[in-house]
């Protein structure tokens, strides 16, 4: 990319227009994934696994072979694919209801086995597609349709930090939490994706990039405010950064 | 031959399952039809274990044996459980080392084998099952000694090869005891 | 012909390897554990894929992934584990991903027991998972038949792009008998699956998708009707059964799997005593072999269903009977394996009553 380029058409994606709500960051994240797969020369042989949630239809957006998984099962589906197509880039794209709730076992065990897959984990602290119910990642005090008085620690627990949890799993090779609320962070997020796919293609084990995302519709605020809300409320609880890095591990050894 | 239905029973660890498998393997070599069916349950050592083996020149339907022609009993609890099922005039090979003789039926052909004692004399309690097997093979007359020895050679290979000689001796001792 | 003495679960596992199975995904449950145990060693030796999953749910979803990527895939389990797999089975059927599933049945409901049972009949033939779908399901009565059917089942699964279930029970899984693994030739059919999401969009020039989601009801109905057309073809072409001594029978047993081999003993004994008894043995549970019930001789007056479940298959017998014959049921369940004498006694009671009438 030369220094004059401020925008370029999407890569690794089909011509279909996104169905996502205004202010949702799925579109940015899709674009980053498509770009990284294209730039690394992986898109023609990549296999993606769509999950259940707002991104359930992403198989019509990614311009590679795509299989749609049951709720929470994407890492198991990806395991099956990767084991019989070892040289292909295999990724899942999952929300926080899908991964952190119903699919936690599949995510943890895929990491635990050190599956060479990349998980794109989009955390917006709520169930979007089903209409704004409480997720394991919902913040304390956050109002949702199933926590109308605000989430309380008593009885619903405190928000689950997936990247930190997976950092305790030996098979997890690369884990980073990123945000896409401004261009600087978008560029950083892209670097994380590059590193994640690089980890996979080098056979170093499980990689996951957690994206702090937004849901203005179900949060009940304007798109612009939702980015600020994520920065002010989510990032303090879900700090950005690298939780596991295979290169660091090698240095430590 | 006509159908021969056998139940072998003892406690887990006595090698009851192996005895049945060796017989089924010998039957397979001789071109017979055969089935082997184990009792199965939560895996425990020391619990009761039994298997049913059937041999026939015709295809075998049920592998489950309700009325055995022959019964091999390796411990006392198994006698209580299975003796009543043995058909009248059937063969009862009984390990007298662990079974009280006063409880034995009097309408069947009884082969008494002091199997544990004989196994200890040979050098290892674990081959008591082979003493019992030898006694049954002799008493039933269905299989030749050579037939079983061939199966032993297939079974005791690699690291287990060193066990071949002792198992063969135990088997022969059982055959002798049944010949008396 | 070379016969080898093998345990049922191990013989079925080996047959799957010979049927061209590329990958196995499973989870331990009694009484099928010898299948994953055997495959953990032998798939590795053959340089094929073996994964012990974290749950039955994960295992069937791995099957869905690997099958979607074009591989020949196997999983095995037993009744409660099959119940857990139903979500994935529904997705496999809905998105037309082929696979083979071995179900070594045990007693239920719930944790039930671990002894032989046929109480999964409804779970196998009535979907089990959500939606309008069917599995091609085979119920062998002995290990030779199990081996032969498993070797063919991967070809069938691929031909119909549909999951195939092999339904046996703990009796067949745990028993040993000699089998000839070469009686049915090894599968040689390996056509490229152009529909697969095998990561070959670059060569194909277009990306493939595998989905079971169709948000437009008209589109989903269209998809359901296309699936039905496929199931109709299975009903037309895949019914398998055996008719034993039905030519002059007055009483006909209906029995499958382990129960059929026990019933076979009863038929033989009753025939020796001069009773006119025969048997229809379904080999496919779905499609239920309704052809077997056509053109029965005029001598037949009663059909007696024998099963290790409380009348689950009997419902299908009622459907195909259409009021023609008297129907009766003799069932054992909970893991109790019936003895031939029980069937003989029941048969004699029916035949005596009929004589008196």
Helices and strands, with pairings:
The complex is a heterotrimer of chains A (253), B (180) and C (357).
Chain A: H1 26-39, E1 47-50, E2 65-68, H2 74-84, E3 90-95, H3 96-102, H4 104-112, E4 118-123, H5 153-156, H6 162-166, E5 172-179, H7 183-201, E6 206-212, H8 216-219, H9 223-237, E7 241-244, H10 246-252
Parallel strand pairs in A: 1-2, 1-3, 3-4, 4-6, 5-6
Antiparallel strand pairs in A: 5-7
Chain B: E1 4-11, H1 16-29, E2 33-38, E3 48-56, E4 70-73, H2 76-82, E5 91-95, E6 109-113, H3 115-122, H4 128-140, H5 145-155, H6 164-179
Parallel strand pairs in B: 1-4, 4-5, 5-6
Antiparallel strand pairs in B: 1-3, 2-3
Helix pairs in contact in B: 1-5, 3-4, 3-6, 4-6, 5-6
Chain C: E1 4-7, H1 8-18, E2 23-26, H2 34-45, E3 49-52, H3 56-68, E4 73-77, H4 79-94, E5 99-105, H5 121-125, E6 136-138, H6 143-160, E7 163-169, H7 170-174, E8 176-179, H8 201-204, E9 209-210, H9 217-237, E10 241-244, E11 251-254, H10 257-272, E12 277-282, E13 284-286, E14 302-307, H11 312-321, E15 326-331, H12 340-356
Parallel strand pairs in C: 2-3, 2-4, 4-5, 5-7, 6-7, 11-12, 11-14, 14-15
Antiparallel strand pairs in C: 1-8, 6-13, 10-12
Helix pairs in contact in C: 1-2, 1-6, 3-4, 10-12
CATH architecture of chain B: 3-Layer(aba) Sandwich
CATH superfamily of chain B: Pyruvate-ferredoxin oxidoreductase, PFOR, domain III
Oligomer: heterotrimer
Judging from the principal axes of the Cα atoms, what is the shape of chain C? Answer: globular
Task: Please tell me the total number of domains of chain B.
Answer: 1
* Total discrete domains of chain C: 2
Largest sheet of chain C: 7 strands, mixed
Low-confidence blocks of residues of chain B: none
Describe the strand arrangement of the main beta sheet of chain B, using strand numbers. 2-3-1-4-5-6
Taken from the alpha-carbon principal axes, the silhouette of chain B is globular
Query: Remind me, CATH topology of the largest domain in chain C?
Result: Rossmann fold
Distance between the termini of chain B: 25 Å
Tell me the strand percentage band of chain C.
Answer: 15-25%
CATH top level class name of the largest domain in chain C: Alpha Beta
Q: Which protein chains are joined by the largest interface, and how many residues does each one contribute?
A: A-C, 40 and 42 residues
Order of helices and strands of chain C: EHEHEHEHEHEHEHEHEHEEHEEEHEH
The radius of gyration computed from the alpha-carbon positions of chain C, rounded to a whole number of angstroms, is 21 Å
């Amino acid at each position: 990319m030369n220094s004059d380029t401020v925008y370029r058409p999407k890569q690794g994606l089909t011509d279909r227009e996104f169905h996502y709500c205004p202010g949702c960051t799925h579109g940015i994240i899709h674009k980053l994934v498509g770009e990284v797969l294209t730039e690394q020369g992986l898109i023609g042989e990549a296999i993606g696994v769509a999950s259940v949630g707002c991104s359930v239809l992403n198989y019509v957006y990614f311009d590679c072979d795509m299989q749609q998984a049951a709720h929470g099962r994407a890492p198991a589906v990806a395991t099956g694919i990767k084991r019989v197509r070892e040289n292909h880039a295999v990724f899942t794209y999952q929300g926080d209801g899908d991964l952190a709730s119903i699919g936690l076992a599949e995510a943890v065990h895929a990491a635990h086995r050190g599956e060479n897959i990349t998980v794109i984990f989009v955390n917006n602290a709520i169930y979007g597609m089903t209409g704004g119910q409480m997720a394991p990642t919902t913040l304390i005090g956050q109002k949702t349709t199933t926590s109308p008085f605000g989430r309380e620690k008593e009885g619903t627990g405190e928000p689950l930090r997936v990247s930190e949890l997976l950092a305790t799993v030996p098979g997890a090779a690369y884990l980073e939490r990123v945000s896409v609320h401004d261009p600087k962070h978008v560029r950083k997020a892209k670097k994380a994706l590059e590193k994640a796919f690089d980890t996979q293609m080098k056979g170093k084990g499980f990689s996951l990039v957690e994206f702090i995302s937004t849901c203005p519709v179900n949060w009940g605020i304007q798109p612009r405010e939702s980015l600020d809300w994520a920065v002010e409320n989510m990032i303090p609880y879900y700090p950005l950064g690298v939780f596991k890095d295979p290169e660091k591990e090698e240095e430590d050894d | 031959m006509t159908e021969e239905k056998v139940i072998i029973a003892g406690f887990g660890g006595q090698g009851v399952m192996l005895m049945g498998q060796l017989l089924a393997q010998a039957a397979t070599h001789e071109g017979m039809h055969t089935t082997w069916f184990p009792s199965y349950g939560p895996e425990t050592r020391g619990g009761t274990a039994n298997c049913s083996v059937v041999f026939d020149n015709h295809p075998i339907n049920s592998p489950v044996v309700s009325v055995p022609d022959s019964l091999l009993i390796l411990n006392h609890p198994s006698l209580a459980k299975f003796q009543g099922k043995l058909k009248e005039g059937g063969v009862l090979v009984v390990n007298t080392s662990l079974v009280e003789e006063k409880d034995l039926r009097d309408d069947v052909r009884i082969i008494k084998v002091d199997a544990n004692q004989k196994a200890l004399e040979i050098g290892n309690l674990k081959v008591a099952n082979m003493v019992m097997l030898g006694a049954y093979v002799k008493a039933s007359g269905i299989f030749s000694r050579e037939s079983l020895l061939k199966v032993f050679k297939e079974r005791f290979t690699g690291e287990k090869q060193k066990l071949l000689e002792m198992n063969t001796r135990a088997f022969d001792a059982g055959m002798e005891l049944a010949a008396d | 012909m070379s016969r080898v003495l093998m345990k049922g679960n191990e013989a079925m596992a080996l047959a799957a390897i010979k049927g061209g199975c590329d990958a196995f995904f499973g989870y331990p449950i009694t009484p099928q554990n010898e299948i994953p145990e055997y495959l953990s060693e032998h798939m590795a030796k053959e340089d094929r894929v073996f994964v012990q999953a974290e749950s039955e749910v994960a295992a069937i979803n791995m099957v869905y992934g690997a099958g979607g990527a074009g591989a020949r895939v196997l999983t095995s389990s037993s009744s409660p584990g099959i119940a857990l797999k139903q979500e994935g089975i529904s997705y496999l059927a809905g998105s037309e991903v082929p696979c083979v599933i071995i179900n070594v049945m045990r007693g239920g409901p719930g944790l039930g027991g671990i002894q032989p049972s046929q109480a999964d009949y409804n779970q196998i033939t009535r979907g089990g998972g959500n939606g309008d779908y069917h599995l091609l399901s085979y119920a062998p009565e002995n290990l030779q038949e199990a081996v032969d059917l498993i070797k063919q089942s991967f070809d069938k699964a691929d031909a119909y792009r549909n999951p195939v279930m092999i339904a046996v029970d703990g009796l067949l899984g745990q028993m040993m008998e000699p089998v000839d693994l070469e009686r049915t030739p090894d599968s040689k059919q390996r056509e490229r699956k152009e529909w697969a999401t095998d990561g070959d969009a670059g060569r194909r020039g277009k990306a493939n998708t595998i989905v079971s989601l169709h948000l437009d009801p008209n589109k989903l109905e269209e998809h359901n009707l296309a699936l039905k057309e496929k199931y109709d073809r299975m009903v037309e072409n895949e019914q398998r059964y055996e008719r034993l001594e039905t030519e002059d029978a007055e009483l006909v047993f209906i029995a499958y799997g382990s129960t059929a081999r026990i019933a076979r003993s009863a038929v033989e004994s009753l025939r020796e005593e001069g009773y006119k008894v025969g048997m229809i043995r379904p080999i496919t549970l779905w499609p239920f072999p309704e052809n077997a019930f056509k053109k029965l001789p005029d001598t037949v007056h009663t059909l007696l269903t024998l099963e290790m479940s409380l009348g689950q298959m009997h419902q299908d017998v009622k459907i195909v009977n259409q009021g023609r014959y008297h129907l009766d049921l003799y069932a054992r369940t909970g893991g109790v394996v019936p003895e031939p004498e029980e069937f003989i006694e029941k048969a004699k009671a029916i035949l005596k009553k009929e004589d008196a009438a």
